[in-house]
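Q: Hi! First time doing this. I have a protein sequence and I read that you can turn it into a structure. Is that right? Here it is:
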Amino acid sequence: MTTKISTENKNKLSVENKNIGLLSASQAIIGSQQALIMSVGALVGISLAPNPSLATLPISFMVLGLAFTSGSAALLSHRLGRTKAFIFGAMLAVLSAIIAAIGIFIGSFIIFSMALALAGASTAFGQQYRFAAADSVPEERKGNAISWVLLGGLFAGFIGPALAKWGRNWFEGAEFAGSFIALSALALFGIYILAQTKLPKAEAKQEIKSETSLVEIARSPSIFVPIITGVVSYGIMKFIMVAAPLAMVGMAGHSKEMAISAIQWHIISMFAPSLVTAMIISKFGSRIVIALGLILILACLFIAISGMSSAHFGLAMILLGIGWNFGFIGSTALLAEGYKPQDAARVQALNEQLVFGIMALVTILSGVLLNIFGWQAINLFLIPVTTFTLALLAWEAWGREKNNS
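A: Yes, that's right. Below is the predicted 3D structure, encoded as structure tokens:
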């Protein structure tokens, strides 16, 4: 009997690890899409836009596509089954890359923007990889599973910018069209990888129907605090990430290649710490990891306001990436600890809608505020926002300790 249980446990662990590995590889692919778009989206935008102030609008369309579909993607992943939903998302990635290339070929700012909106929709399904991993393992492995999946983004930091540089001049008069064509082939391979996953249906954990309203659930500090820390970590990261290439090229006089490299190292920094993040969560808890992330984001902001040399930009973007990693992974893990299995679909949908809805707003504002106030001023504005979030996290931790004592 013991041998049978042991064999079943080994088989279950093997399936769990295989799924995590495949999701990590899929994260690398969907992350490459984001890395490429964040590296060259504004640069393509400024070459196609009727007005330079609209340069970041295509990226804003991507984030809007993500924001408007994130809640639906979360619910569909639970109802349709995660493997089928994820394959559908990968198909959207293939289609969006092809349409983006067409937009560049014919010089259409509108078509390029619509393509990036579709890319955002595909990313909404990719954002569910981390929850799929967390929900498929025992409580003690959730932080580790999330970290392993997001570690795939480390490779995205190399692949996305490499595709941008590799395909940049494939077609004369259509800069970066080749980059998106190469991306479509990579996304097609992603469909094959996702088809190999054997993810349990999320409904299996929701046999008991929740009688608690979503409003009542969201009032709990264990829910709204990690949602807010996730919103702030992701929102500030995206705000600065979108503005940085434009500030480097248009305001500081750095080259496009230097701007792409800065984004590349930022993306590497976003995902490289993932395994360390898992270990810190296991040893010190999610709250400490979130606090470290917010402190690193503060350090990024102070460096950004202190100068505009390549070193200032480079160091600020690296700290921003690490800060996002700690803040976002910590927030996801803390949220996953806070809800009951029967509430998972609704809480995850709410979280995704808020995180990426706010991210859409700040992405739209990023280019506009950069042109109005300048690089250093927009960073200065974010310091009190980050400080307040740190204080909110401390309040939640204090309340938890008080209740447990």
